Amino acid sequence: MKPVAIFRLFPIEGPGYFVTFLDSHYIPWKLIKIDTGEDFPHSPEQFSGLAFMGGAMSANDNLPWIATALALIRQAVRQNIPVLGHCLGGQLMSKALGGLVSRSTVKEIGWGKVSVEDNPIAREWFDDLSDFESFHWHGEIFTLPDGATRLLSSKFCENQAFAMGIHLGMQCHVEMTEEMVKTWYEVGAGEIANSSGPAVQSLEAVQKDLANRLSSLNVVARHLYAKWISRLPGLG
Asked: Which pLDDT does position 234 carry in this prediction?
């Protein structure tokens, strides 16, 4: 089958557990490092799916690659090539499909519970799961594009995930690994020091029972990723 294209938009926000999952299912993938100047493909047709990771920038920033990313997402959706977005990736998906990205009144950094919505589409993605603890690092939020269904919400963020047919956009981070958590807190120490609020966690708090928290998050990620790859053309 064709590989999954994974777009890294910021050096420390790589695919994490997502590639562990793909490898365990023998699904080929290609990492495209937009942060080092690599170009987006002209067309999504050479890939079975597109996955966009997170980043410290905004989907509203005047960066040369933003418009290209939005166009590629729209083209993939038109051609029924599954798209997956993590945090900034989810925001790019929302914006590409007609939603809005704006600054949140509450910054979320660290662990926080998200609730699964009570609708048939959410049940298709999450089955009987009602809530789980996810990882967060965002100061912006997105609205739902027309035709999208909310899958997840949290106390401080109404739209934590949406689905539009075979496409899945998330505000939260289900791809986390222990190394990523520690690196983000090291690199982002200044941001944390200058941030406050009910959803910003200290390094000590975020590392409490870290291994078990990540193991539980991996279970959720495996479930979501399995649903997403089942839509990939050529699987099996």
From this structure: 81
Indicate the helix (H) or strand (E) that contains 5: strand 4-8
In this structure, are residues 85 and 91 in contact, taking their beta carbons and an 8 Å threshold?
A: yes
Nearest alpha carbon to residue 152 among 165, 140, 141, 163: 163
Question: Does the structure show a pLDDT above 70 at 236?
Answer: no
* 8 A C-beta contact, residue 48 and residue 22: no
User: Tens of pLDDT along 166-194?
Assistant: 999 999 999 999 999 999 999 999 999 99
Of the candidate ranges 40-44, 106-110, 150-154, 232-236, the one whose mean pLDDT is the lowest = 232-236
Tell me the one-letter amino acid at 63.
Answer: L
Amino acid occupying residue 43: S
Strand intervals (E) in 62-178: 83-86, 101-116, 131-142, 149-154, 157-164, 167-170
- Is residue 164 a contact partner of residue 97, using CB atoms and an 8 Å limit? yes
Q: Is 77 exposed, middle or buried (0-12, 13-18, 19+ CB in 10 A)?
A: buried
CATH architecture of 4-229: 3-Layer(aba) Sandwich (3.40)
38: phi > 0 → left, psi -120 to 50 → alpha, else beta; which?
beta
Q: Per-domain residue ranges for the chain?
A: 4-229
Which of the pair, 93 or 196, is modelled with greater confidence? 93
